[in-house]
Amino acid sequence: MTHSTYSLGNPGDMPYLIRLPVSSSTKLQQQIRYRHGIKNVILFT
Asked: Superkingdom of the source (predicted)?
């Protein structure tokens, strides 16, 4: 299964990574933004 890695946090902060199925990326991205107030979620493919 293909996975995407999200790097969460602001520049200069130590990011934490989440591994998730690509099919869930959009929904999870929205949940991350809501729960953590993240301004930028960078998707590495």
From this structure: Bacteria
CA 30 to chain centre: 9
For 30, the enclosing helix (H) or strand (E) is helix 25-36
* Environment class of 11 (CB within 10 Å of its CB; exposed 0-12, middle 13-18, buried 19+): exposed
DSSP conformational letter for 21: E
Write out the two tokens for 39.
């301004």
d(CA 4, CA 9): 16
User: Model pTM greater than 0.90?
Assistant: no
* Amino acid 45: pLDDT: 43
Question: Over 50: is that where the pLDDT of 1 sits?
Answer: no
